[in-house]
């Protein structure tokens, strides 16, 4: 592939390849795959990277794909990360590139993330060599699969020496072409819990012969709200939601047991652990007062996504200098959704930014909505951001 010299040529490349990227994005949208089943998607990514002259590493974390653009110093490197997977949602759009897979849909824009990173791999390859290596990381299983964690466990950072990690997610709440970020937690830590309350079943008309677990479980649900409201500093956000209450099969039998399930979201792992401890203590205390048994289990699925100050400041500079200050909101509020890029940020410093995806004049569909679609107009903006970030990081501007 021919090398280009002037940075002004980046814009030429963006214009020249926009139609190709939009076509590729629509192809991925039409063929969504669920977490760890992204075989076709990984094939498409690998084929595109190979056509650009990259050596491609496959299979990291299951279906992950990695390609590296070597820099002058082999010991220096950064990770730019995109996600590959779709969601178990039936698409409600009827345009030509709507999902061909029944019940599976790219409703979070990972098709767009994948293509923007492929675009960066193309453009950076045609620019003069950077002082350090850029690792393009396409991870599987972001939607509840902790694919980032799997790639790390498979030796991502041993194979790809990395000083810092960078991620990007489209955001329908921001105007297209704008960026949002913040230092510190940008997304929440998430854990799930299951509370199994065991009493003693009985005839509905003879509750004194049993031990009814339902009033006890109701108390636990209410106390969960108290834990979110009263067991922590009010300025430190937390959500405790009981989302499932399963008990009994009919109207004249007191059941033996009740199962509750829910989620805890916080902006720090420390608070996450404290709330878990308090929920466990509350459940044990209430069960003991009632003379019942309780089992509480937690499954920590994602840590908080915490942007480090130096790398966030760098991203701010990149956005201001490449686009404009008007297109940057550097104090966006933290979001209580979770994102597995937090695993990468636990291992390395870095920053996760939001790129506006709102289509002017169109109804803004939220992420995970059955009528959501990625806005192809922002592909060159995302590619430009990745390219400028790599150049700024290594001082090549
Ligand atoms: Zn999502
Ligand atoms: Zn997503």
Question: Key terms for this structure?
Answer:
397 residues, alpha/beta, Aminopeptidase, Alpha-Beta Plaits, 2 domains, 8-stranded mixed beta sheet, 4-stranded antiparallel beta sheet, 10 helices, binds zinc ion
What ions, cofactors and ligands are bound? zinc ion
The CATH architecture name of the largest domain reads 3-Layer(aba) Sandwich
Number of domains: 2
Major beta-sheet overview = 8 strands, mixed
**CATH fold description of the largest domain:** Aminopeptidase
Count of separate DSSP helical elements: 10
As residue ranges, the low-confidence spans are: none
- The shape, in one word, is elongated
- Strand segment tally: 16
Q: How far apart lie the N and C ends?
A: 22 Å
Mean pLDDT: 95
Computed structural class: alpha/beta
State the strand order across the main sheet. Answer: 1-2-4-3-5-16-6-15
Q: What percent of residues are in strands?
A: 25-35%
CATH class of the largest domain: Alpha Beta
Over the alpha carbons, how many angstroms does the gyration radius reach? Answer: 24 Å
What's the name of the CATH homologous superfamily of the largest domain? Zn peptidases
Question: Helicity level, as a percent range?
Answer: 25-40%
Domain Peptidase M20 dimerisation: 192-282
Keywords: Hydrolase, Manganese, Metal-binding
Cofactor: Mn(2+)
Binding site for Mn(2+): 108, 110, 143, 169, 368
